[in-house]
């Protein structure tokens, strides 16, 4: 299992390239933009897409909500890198669950696929995403009845720590959840690199 978890792909793409080169991971990427589709600000998606291409990746972007389950499965089955964008965490989890994709992602990770998650995409690797409720609105995911997530790590990424406009929400999340989950705060220039041996924080 190899995970690259960050607050911002745009600000950590050089760290991602280091991981790709070091682990000799293939350059065909599926970029899931679903979480961003319900946000007012989603111009960052184009910036991230361009950044991935600058790394030499062959990128296919996809919105899971707009795809059939069969097509989503086929695309995830064949990519070397699965990148999942930031946006609304609850909406992202809702759409992944509607297409029954969580078990598939876990299996593909066991087969050598790299998972790269940004903000919401990083949060869903935790056991449960309920702690994201201070930062994200669960109202955007009315069909989500269960907030259990991928459960790939035993900690819970808290992205954008100390970064505006999320600084206050991050601090409130720490105050409310510090004794309930193992929070791992990272700023926009850091990434968490996870393997079977454990994890380490890359960047500043």
TrEMBL record:
One of its GO terms (molecular function) is serine-type peptidase activity. GO terms for biological process: proteolysis. The keyword Hydrolase applies. It comes from the Bacteria. Gene3D superfamilies: 3.40.50.880. Transmembrane segments: none annotated. InterPro entries: Class_I_gatase-like, Peptidase_S51. Keywords: Hydrolase, Protease, Serine protease. Belongs to the peptidase S51 family. This is Peptidase S51. It comes from Streptococcus pantholopis.
């Amino acid at each position: 299992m190899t995970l690259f978890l960050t607050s911002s792909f745009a600000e950590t793409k050089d760290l991602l390239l280091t991981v790709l080169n070091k682990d000799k991971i293939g350059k065909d990427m599926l970029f899931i933009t679903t979480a961003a589709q319900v946000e007012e600000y989603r111009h960052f998606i184009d910036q991230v897409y361009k950044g991935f291409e600058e790394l030499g990746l062959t990128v296919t972007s996809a919105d899971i909500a707009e795809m059939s389950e069969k097509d989503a499965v086929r695309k995830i089955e064949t990519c070397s890198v699965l990148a999942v964008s930031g946006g609304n965490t609850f909406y992202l989890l809702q759409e992944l669950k509607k297409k029954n994709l969580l078990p598939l992602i876990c299996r593909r990770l066991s087969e050598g696929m790299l998972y790269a998650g940004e903000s919401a995409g990083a949060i869903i690797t935790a056991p449960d995403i309920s702690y994201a409720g201070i930062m994200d609105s669960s109202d955007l995911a009315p069909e989500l009845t269960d907030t259990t997530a991928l459960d790939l790590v035993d900690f819970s990424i808290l992205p954008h720590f100390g970064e505006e406009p999320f600084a206050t929400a991050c601090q409130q999340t720490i105050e409310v959840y510090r004794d309930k989950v193992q929070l791992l705060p990272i700023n926009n220039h850091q990434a968490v690199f996870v393997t079977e041996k454990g994890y380490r924080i890359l960047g500043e």
